[in-house]
Amino acid sequence: MRILEKTGRTVEEAVSQALAELKLKKDEVEIEILEEPNKGIFGLFGSKNARVRVTEKPDPIKAVKKFYEKVTAQMGVKSEILVREEEDFIKMTLIGNNLGILIGRRGETLDALQYLGNLVANKHNLVERKKIILDAEGYRKRREDTLVKLAARLAERVKRTGYRVVLEPMNPQERRIIHTALQNDKRVQTYSEGEEPFRKVVIALRK
């Protein structure tokens, strides 16, 4: 967050100078008038310029993007970050080559980075506290497709054997994919059991 004090013959002039130096728009800052201009006696003696303090408003999305840029640079990875804001979440996608190190085994590193990004966003009071979704090389979509196919295959096993199936621990986002994939299946039901971070999805016959 940057703060700048400027003087000018008028408040508007002082604010304009500050905005130009900060390279920001008026709706991106908070303006505090420290001193009103004074023309003095006969406009000659004791005249005083306006003085303002212009403070950059915290931008959570910029803060998260800057955080990811710093982390990826420290990891020796060159990537571009694309941001897409949706109604319920903000998706940030890392674009580049050899991003496997950012994804990790079964997305564990990507999930950790996503968690840290949400901490940064909340620290900067993200409007409506939208969730940050972090992706790299289309991993989230590939993982979703894999989980949907896995859910269908395991559901068929449950129907065939009558025994419930307990999946490996998953994060809330991945558990939701399993639940959604089977929510319209009239023969099986899904539920979660256990405590985070070892919470698991169970697929069982409907009673």
Secondary structure elements and pairings:
Elements: E1 3-8, H1 11-22, E2 29-35, E3 50-56, H2 60-74, E4 79-85, E5 89-96, H3 100-103, H4 108-123, E6 131-136, H5 139-161, E7 165-166, H6 172-182, E8 188-193, E9 200-205
Parallel strand pairs: 5-6
Antiparallel strand pairs: 1-3, 2-3, 4-5, 7-9, 8-9
Describe the structure.
This protein is α+β, with helices and mostly antiparallel strands and 207 residues long. The protein is 39% helix and 27% strand. The protein has helices spanning 11-22, 60-74, 100-103, 108-123, 139-161, 172-182, and strands spanning 3-8, 29-35, 50-56, 79-85, 89-96, 131-136, 165-166, 188-193, 200-205. The termini are far apart.
Helix content: 25-40%
- CA radius of gyration is 26 Å
Provide the spatial order of strands within the biggest beta sheet: 1-3-2
Helices and strands: which structural class?
alpha+beta
SSE sequence, one letter per element: EHEEHEEHHEHEHEE
Tally the structural domains. Answer: 3
Q: What's the mean pLDDT score?
A: 89
CATH architecture term of the largest domain: 2-Layer Sandwich
Q: In one word, what is the shape?
A: elongated
Q: How much beta, percentage-wise?
A: 25-35%
CATH structural fold name of the largest domain = GMP Synthetase, Chain A, domain 3
Number of helices: 6
- What is the count of β-strands? 9
User: Spans of 5+ residues with little confidence (pLDDT < 50)?
Assistant: none
Subunit structure: Forms a complex with KhpA.
Keywords: Cell shape, Cell wall biogenesis/degradation, Chaperone, Cytoplasm, RNA-binding
InterPro entries: Jag_KH, Jag_N_dom_sf, KH_dom-like_a/b, KhpB, KhpB_N, R3H_dom, R3H_dom_sf, R3H_KhpB
Domain R3H: 141-207
